[in-house]
Write a structure and sequence with these properties.
The structure is a homodimer. Chain A is of the alpha/beta class. In chain A, about 45% of the residues lie in helices and about 15% in strands. Chain A has 3 domains: about 45 residues, 434 Repressor (Amino-terminal Domain); about 130 residues, 3-Layer(aba) Sandwich (Rossmann fold); about 130 residues, Response regulator (Rossmann fold, 3-Layer(aba) Sandwich), CATH 3.40.50.2300. Chain A is built from 13 helices and 11 strands. In chain A, strand 8, helix 11 and strand 9 form a beta-alpha-beta unit. In chain A, helix 1 packs across helix 3. Chains A and B meet through helix 4, helix 5, strand 2, helix 6 and helix 11 of A and helix 4, helix 5, strand 2, helix 6 and helix 11 of B. The structure holds a DNA duplex.
Chain lengths: ~350, ~350
Amino acid sequence: MVTMLDVSLRAGVSKATVSRVLNGTGQVKESTRNQVFKAMEELEYRPNFLARSLANRTSNSIGLVVSSFDGFYFGCLLQQAARRAELHGKQLIVTDGHDTPVREELAVQMLADRRCDAIILYTRFMSEEAILQLIDATPMPLIVINRQLFQARDKCVFFEQQEAAFQAVDYLVTQGHRAIACITAPIHTPTGQARLMGYRKALEKHGIGWDAAKVKYGDSAMTGGYTLCQQMLQQGVTFSALFAGNDDMALGAAKAIRQAGLRIPQDISLFGFDDAPSAQWLEPGLSTVYLPIDSMITTAIDQAIKLVNSEPIAAIPPFTGTLVLRESVAPGPGTRLSTAPAR
Amino acid sequence: MVTMLDVSLRAGVSKATVSRVLNGTGQVKESTRNQVFKAMEELEYRPNFLARSLANRTSNSIGLVVSSFDGFYFGCLLQQAARRAELHGKQLIVTDGHDTPVREELAVQMLADRRCDAIILYTRFMSEEAILQLIDATPMPLIVINRQLFQARDKCVFFEQQEAAFQAVDYLVTQGHRAIACITAPIHTPTGQARLMGYRKALEKHGIGWDAAKVKYGDSAMTGGYTLCQQMLQQGVTFSALFAGNDDMALGAAKAIRQAGLRIPQDISLFGFDDAPSAQWLEPGLSTVYLPIDSMITTAIDQAIKLVNSEPIAAIPPFTGTLVLRESVAPGPGTRLSTAPAR
DNA sequence: CTGTTAGCGCCTTCAT
DNA sequence: ATGAAGGCGCTAACAG
């Protein structure tokens, strides 16, 4: 391992000078600078990052922890995060929380130990208090995605889950559906709760009663969507539309629906959530809600960078969803009502 | 930031002693050990990872670079990699190569600079020479996934792409298909080449001529599969089966096929590659080839760990695919031939 | 412009 | 069993 000392000796200067040309700090005579460069090349010198970070108290990197690596969703997130971090000249370091709150917290600590300049946390499972506590136990800026924390509002980047779900279900109702089933996203997560609440509120708005039989608690996997939908069908639960907590489950549900001899959307309308790539290729195209994950992670990173540079920051407005209407929803049995409203 | 010195002062011992209890090295009297622990807790001491790594010359982590973060494929890879690394007590650090050979190389260097104990490289784009060169320019063990390097055979974990593709197409032929179209995986990657070669060999084996019109060069995205398939259909290319370079493109193609008024599998049989989660939920279920990515990354990490511990290693046998037969393939027009072979 | 001298926080002989 | 001292590789005043 060739060190700075080796280079300095070879170039006939001191370590300090080598350091200067390396970092472009201070004044160095053109000629000696060149000598140093030459020495570096000849020796194939590569600065030791650890030593550097230790001395600098900054590793020039930002850490990202996600609950889990699977799903298209985190793929997008990571991809965009990497690009954005790079744009700021920072290296992105990613870790996952193995889908458990404890590991999520450990992951953050690990990144903190590594002296990342800032940390971004996308947690599905940690409790609010735990997060808050983590925030001020962490010496570097910590931005939280997918959570709305009032005590740390300007460190949050979140999405109006409930509102988006509300809109989706509201849309279903205005299309004439009243018997709307729901397969929830994991109900032990705030996200799952919020989406379900959106469903419930939309029903309430239209005076539709809550029917426990129509609500199944899902796990976000395609298989779950399939199984639960199949269950409902077999149990004789009747519904003209199904709102799935995410697109993956909608995909699974679609198969169950067809296997039951039903058609989409003629017999049952289907609505998803996330706008996964495959949503577009399902047949019929799956109507779903688009969640601007790219913008969210971008914003989170930008905010983190600002904090690192001690620039002033402002709270980030909530992100909102957009309904992506494709062909999986048909007018429901109650259509007549909305088409020709009573006077 | 509380340091080891703070702890030592608080506990009334020297830094050396603190270091000893921290690492469990050397002999420390029970009582003083407890004092140190108490001091650490009271001060909420957290060792500085960088300093530690610098002194130890090991960061107790293994680096992983993937070409890109998107696709279910890398999700699995990352997930399993994280688990396996943890099992070995190592932290996993992930970076992506932004889908370009240069960045892939840079990513490896960056991880090397961070003094990872070992590095695992999944490259889609780097040339063989570049990889080889990188291997011996990197001071720590470097394992390469998805590439077969004869000059570094024991550092490679790869999959028999060509053979798997061959089997898939061979299967199609034995099912009675002779007009088999193909949408390739990215043709500038070894993977894309190998899969196409498998297709070609299978045709050759059965004396089926190469028809350029039946081969479209894809990009691995669903949209590409859709567009290219649509093109072929519109150009009047006739085929009874389509072999797609991956499941995503197969999904896209499926839609194009149906939009053309054709049925799967009655009119056109479809075969994918990868066994993506959605393959199972397509209707009919997509026949495809399973690629044991989990085992591959696991093996890669284990091999890396062995190298780190300077244990003896052996070359890893190639991984092979498995045909996953679902419902997207129907007997082709030539079925009679194979059912009742001429004597 | 350049060299000297201290650290950064931790580990590790070498004495005691 | 414990402390003192030097080193890991690099940066950052402070003198010249």
